[in-house]
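Dear colleagues,

For the upcoming journal club I promised to circulate an example of a predicted protein-ligand complex. I picked one with 3-methyl-2-oxobutanoic acid because it came up in last month's discussion. The inputs are reproduced below in full, followed by the predicted structure.
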Amino acid sequence: MSTYTEEKRKVTTQRLLEMKQRGEKISMLTAYDYSMASIIDRAGMDVILVGDSAGNVMAGHTTTLPVTLDQMIWYAQAVRKAVKRALVVVDLPFGSYQGNSKEAVCSAIRIMKETGADAVKMEGGREIRESVERILSAGIPIMGHLGLTPQSINKFGTYAVRAQDKAEADKLLSDAHLLEDLGCFGIVLEKIPAQLGKQVATELAIPLIGIGAGGYVDGQVLVMHDMLGINTAFSPRFLRRYANLYEVIRGAAEHYIQDVKSGDFPNEKESY
Ligand code: KIV
């Protein structure tokens, strides 16, 4: 079953580029804690994203906006300790890089220094150009994020598919070129038409990782809790569920409660 665990070498940004060049798709999934990161790293995941979606699935916020830099560092430290092979990318949270480029580079340096991550991810194109340049000039690899950028949800006012009209599609394409020209090693494309995803992935040399961006891009990313079926309330069209852990965990919890209440647990073998 396990074919992707053969290659034990650490994944680097250079290796992702080589994967794109030879047409090998890139697998990417989020993680926020040691135990889950350890499992998906052993499974052979190429990239593990410590996403600010932690704000939704770990902390219960309705948006990613309340997540702080200290919180991202805490999650990332736990993930980094577990990961031996995957490239670890950490989201710069809302408010840690949009204000000014000096603050942006300080935030990125804290992530790299305090967590041991391999790279940071930032949302936006030309609006954050100065911050991107300054972080890259400090030697920190950046993954961009375009399309439905959740930190801008209040500006969008909706989680609908982005870049459906020509003006927004043109801007996305030119932002993608800009991020590549500045030196980003990859870009996440979220919730955009598949044909636009194809065009960006064809025009750019760096890997494009999609979430709701169709099958023509160079890799796919999902939020762990969504793909494992822990979070059942969220079911956009782009999501494929690979397990139904909500049922598994709830069933186990109900069984345990029953056994405790009935006195069945612990039995003699489980006692000293
Ligand atoms: O925070 C996150 O999990 C993300 C993914 C949706 C790409 O940015």
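Two points we might discuss: The pocket of 3-methyl-2-oxobutanoic acid is lined by residues 30, 49, 51-53, 91, 145, 188, 211, 221, 223 (CB under 6 Å). The beta strands are 26-30, 47-50, 87-91, 119-123, 142-147, 186-190, 208-211, 219-222.

See you all on Thursday,
B. R.
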